[in-house]
Amino acid sequence: MSQQDLTGIEWRFSEWLVANGGLNPENVLEYFSLSPFWDPNSNNATLKMQTNFNSLEGDGSRLKNMIGIEFELVKEQYPILYIIQKQRRRSPTEAIPMAVYYIINGNIYQAPDLYSVLANRMLTIVNHLNRAFREVYNYVEFHPSSGYRWKFNLPKVEEAEKKSQDTAIQRAIEFKNSIDRVFFNEMSSKNEEKKAAAPAEHPALVKLSSAQEVLNRVSPDSQKLISANTSVSTPSSNDGGKLKRKSEKDGTKKKKKVKTETPQA
Fold first, then answer.
1. For 2-20, how does the pLDDT look when each residue is reduced to its tens digit (9 = 90+)?
2. What is the value of pTM for the model shown?
3. How far apart are CA 18 and CA 227, in angstroms?
4. H helices present in the chain, as ranges
5. Distance CA 94, CA 92 (A)
6. Cβ atoms within 10 Å, residue 95
7. Where does the source fall among the domains of life (predicted)?
């Protein structure tokens, strides 16, 4: 007959603990007899009904002479921990353990057996291994010519973020370059229109502007030396008229001189 699994039960009787002043080695089995872990067909229950003893701990000598299921306090750490063992006694010197119960601060638990502990641990291990194999399967690919191989070229989150940042920077640079090109084309078209609408300059003014550009590129000290040794003046309209009248006078003088020098026939 298989016994019921009570490893998931926690039992406590607070009123009894308050009424009896807590647990001690003398009354721990009596407190345990009130829990669902107690077997009413045990030798302890039979002996209690026969003798009507309130304490079951003092009957250890009689229990060893009986055959059957019994409960025994095997370890204690007053007042916190008590360990009770359920066992089948065959002789005064032979008893087979069946279950172990422990009491911590008045709470009673059934300790799991070795089979349950190993089965639970093995189930946990198999579950983790199954999840690991399923995860690894996503990184393996098979080809008839090359067989199985690992897929190392999977995209990573960091690489994707870096790529998106580079793309955003490149778009910003392209937008700035397009604005610069539009501005440059607009300015060049305006300069061409100004050049086409401007009147032709005098050759002397062109030479003067070129000379002035050369002077602007020279250092200030050199400009002082050049201005001291040479003088550059802009021909005005009055100067042009004087030069014209002077040339006309020179021409009339030459004509008169020619007339006076011609011999008479």
1. 567 788 889 999 999 999 9
2. 0.47
3. 120
4. 14-19, 28-32, 43-51, 60-64, 114-137, 157-197, 203-217, 220-229, 237-261
5. 6
6. 16
7. Eukaryota
